[in-house]
Every structure is written in structure tokens, then in C-alpha cells.
Amino acid sequence: MAKNKKNVLSIANLSIGYGSKTVANNINFDLEAGMLCGVVGINGIGKSTLLRTLGGFQPKLYGDILLHGEPLEKYTSTTLSKELSVVLTEQPASKNLTVQELIALGRQPYTNWLGTLTKEDKQQIQASLDAFLLNELRNNKCHELSDGQLQRVLVARAMAQDTSLILLDEPTTHLDLYHKVQILKMLRELAHDKQKTILFTTHEIELAIQLCDRILILDGKDHPFGDPCQLIEQNHFDRLFPSEMVQFDGKTGSFKVNK
Amino acid sequence: MYVSKTYRISFMFLVLALLCSWFLNISSGSVSIPFTEMLSILFGETPEITSWKYIIWDYRIPKAFTSILVGGGLSLSGLLMQTLFRNPLAGPFVLGISSGASLGAALLLMGVSLLAGYSSFTFLGDVSLAIAASIGSFLVLLIVMIVAQRVKDTMALLIIGLMFGSITSALVSVLAYFSSAEDLQRFIFWSFGSVGNLSTNQLLLLGSIVTVGVLLSIISIKSLNAFLLGENYAQSLGVSLKKSRLMIIIATGLLAGGITAFAGPIAFVGLAVPHLTRQIFDTMEHKVLIPTVMLYGAILMLLCDTLAQLPNSASVLPINAITSLVGAPVVIWLLVRKRKMMF
Prior knowledge:
The complex is a heterodimer of chains A (259) and B (343). Chain A has eight helices and twelve strands. With 259 residues, chain A is α/β, with parallel strands linked by helices. Chain A has two domains: 180 residues, Rossmann fold (3-Layer(aba) Sandwich); 74 residues, no CATH class. In chain A, the strands form three sheets. A six-stranded mixed β-sheet of chain A has the order 6-7-8-3-9-10, sandwiched between helices. The radius of gyration of chain A is 19 Å and the shape is globular. By secondary structure, chain B is mostly helical. Chain B has a domain of 235 residues: ABC transporter involved in vitamin B12 uptake, BtuC (Orthogonal Bundle), CATH 1.10.3470.10. Chain B contains 14 helices and no strands. At the A-B interface, helix 2, strand 6 and helix 3 of A face helix 9 and helix 10 of B.
């Protein structure tokens, strides 16, 4: 058990799905503090389902999800909110919130019954604003922001929640290449500097290979997990897409279209 | 939540406006009472014409307090619904809550005597009217809530609310067709809406219902703020969805149902006031919004009631008509000006 102590998140033999419909079976991986991990796989393979299961939004079918060595189900919603934060694909319900108001909502698990912000809360909010370059936008309403800015605000909110684990569902969709790289680099910094464990789903496999510490490939069978270079050496990316359409080039870490 | 500005001055101004409209409300009516006389009556002196004292103390002041309770409570219920349903067009009237209350009231006022064969209203009393209307609004609110769980589309939800309105008004028509003229008249007067004619006991009952509704809303402030992000985010922030949703629904049902029971279905206050409030108090923080929305609603209701009470004439216009005449253009104006209504 000494080895497991370092693990923030340990997944063993996990099956996910909805009721009688199993989406993915036998998922195994461990994540330590300070690791940035990307989850890749084709559409419909269960990336979002995995994230929803890990986030406690839907029950697992089988297996173990250990957060700091404790089963996820044992956490109450209050204690879980201090250990796990999420960035979902859904937009915030009210876009009339200002950037600062939205980020401040991340401090809810720590505030009193009226939601009064203490000095420490305000420092955390400021730190999140700084880390995601949002200082100048702090009083802007969310409906005034571009997609890239809004995504930064949502990640900053998760950072303000100050949890050891952050789950993000497709944080790079709808963004151009520059903003994709920007978000992922910011996540990498957050993971390495603040020792947060960050797990995100993405379709940007080439960027994930360059920036992630670990990658989990959902392929419907073995779900290989490991260091990106290691996965390339073991030719796991080659099998991701049908080879007559797209081929993976291990030397450059990129995909080529077969014409 | 982070409130960027302090709204102390605007808030003081609102309180002042409430006092002014309260004075305006009690100084206008079918009998014209000079301002100085009115002040002395308020300070407990007996004027030359003793009936003035009764008019002020027994009629106008209870009516003004009813207006405050009705306006404040309906506006608060509108705010709660807009946050809970994540829908800027939600309100007690739009979602069919008022129609539910109408059906409850109609069943009591017309249905019971129809079934039992005698006019039962005097026998049943006013408390039963409040209970019937509240049950009606609670039922509709619960059904809308269940539908809202399945239908994520906000437009669909509004249309369902409108359909409920049609169904209830159809049922009311059927009841009306078979009931006696006397019962029908009673129901129609109730549906005009009125903030006058409440006895002290009724006022106390209404006051307690509104107080409970307000207290439940205050307890829910934190979860209301979290709901602004959506339910999944709220859950991830440690909000117990079932518990807080139930609490907000009970608060809404008590406020909208209880008020509709006593004052009749009053349109547009619940929908329009939260949007009007945000014109000045441009924040989503419910800690700020709850008191200001209530103040705004109370002021609007006092002014509408003053308008309904045509100066120096004995006739009183139906308050429901006045709030619609004021409220509907406001909603249209907001939509046209901002293009998109947001909450």
C-alpha cells in the first residue's frame, strides 16, 4: 500500500456505462500529484462517460475509483467538492455573471452559509485571475467573452476551487490552435507548479503527446495508459484509427492522411 | 459570490422610494384627505371628521401592507423561478403557477357548490380558499418541475406552461358554465385581483406565508448562486441538488400560491420585476437581488394600486389589469432594447 499512498487517483478494473449498457470495460490507471493526463479515443468510445463517472455525476458499473485511497462513493458532496472540481462541456446557465463572480463561485465549498468571501478566498480568486490572464476581463460579463476567454474563466474557476484533482471535458473544443495550446500549457503549468492532478478528455492527440505527462487511450479493449513516448514506442496510436485512412508517424508524433 | 460594486446608495434610494410610494398609496383613494390631516392621523390624533381615521387605519394601511407583501413576494417568486429553471422568462404567471391557483380557487368557489348543491363559500371561509389555491399552484409547480427534468429545452418548458394555462382556463370555463351566477361572480371578482378587503387575520396569515417563503429563500442563497452555473456545476460545488431544489420549490409555491389565493392572479409582477431590478443592480448575487427585488416589487405594486384607485372616485380598477398594462410593455421594451433577455 505504500506505493498507492502517493496516488491521487487510482482506477482499477473499472466498467462504465448507463444501466445495462456498458460503454467501456476494464479501465486501469493511477495518477500522482502534479500529473497532467489526457484521455484520447474516437467519438463515442466513452471519454465523457469516464469523466462523468469519475466526477460522481453517474454511478460506475463495476470496479474501483479511489481518490486519495478512499472509494469515491464514500465522499459526501461537501467533502468531494474540496477534493474534485470539474470543467464541463456545458455552458454556464447564466452568462450574465461577471468573470470575477463566476470564479468566486469556485470558493463556495469553503464559504459560510451566506457565501461570504474571506481574505483567503479573495487571494485564491486573485491567484486564479492572474494565472489565466483574466485580470483585465474581471468585470466583463461572460456573454461578452470569446470562446477561448470563457474557457479560461471556467478553468480558472476550477482552480479557485483549490482541489487536488481537476477533471475537464474537452477543454479545447471550439478553440483555434493558438488558444488550444494556450489552455493546455496553462493546465500543464497548473499541474506542475501547484501539484494538481489534472485529467482531461481531448481530440488533440498530437498536442496531448507533446504536453501531457500521461495519456490514457480508450480503444474499447485494453485501454493502454502511460507516458506518451512509451505509448508511441509500443505503437498504440497506430491502432487508434483505421490505417487505410489515417496513419500515425511515430518519429514526428503526428497523424498523416492517406490519400 | 464576488460583488464588484457596493449598492448602498441605490439601496437607500429604493427604501426611500418605498416610503414615498407608501405615502402616495395611503393618501390617495375615493375620499380625499388633506396631507396634513393624514400625517396627524398617522401619529394617532383624531381628525375633525372621525371617519377619516377609520378609512386610513382600517382600510388604506392594511391595503398598502397587502400591496407590499404581494408585490415583494411575487417578485421574489419570479426571481427564484428564473434561477431554478435557468430561464429569463420564467415567472408565476408564465409557467402556469397562477393558472394552477386559479383552478384551485375555481374548484372551491364554483365546483364545491356544484357538487354539493349548495353555496358553500360562507361555510368554508377564506382560509380554505388560500389552501385550495396553494394546492393548485403547488401541483402545477411540481408537474412543471418534473417536466423540466426531462425537457432541457427552455422554450419547450414555457410552451408547456402556456398549455397548462389553456387547460386550466378550459376547466374553469366548464365549471363556470355549470355554476350559478352568484358563484361565478365571486370567482370573476377574485380573478380581477385585489389587494383591498383583507381582514386583519387574513393579512396576518398572508404575512406569515410570505415570511416563511422569504426565510426559505434566504437559506437557499448559496445554492441559488451555484445554480447560476447549472445543476452539474452546482453539484460539484457541494450543493445537495434534491434538498435545495425542494426548498426553492416550496418557497416559490408558498409565495406564488399564497399570494394568488388572497390577491387573485396578478400578472407580470413576478416576471418583470427581476429584470427591472437588474437595470440598476447589475449583479447576479442573490444576497443583493433578494432584498432589492422585493423592494422593487413592493414599490411597483403600491404604484399600480394607486393607479387602480382612481383619485377621488369611488371606482377601483382591477389590479390585474393595471399590472398587465404596466408589466407587458416593460417586458417588450426590455426584449427590444437588449435583444436577448438574460438572467
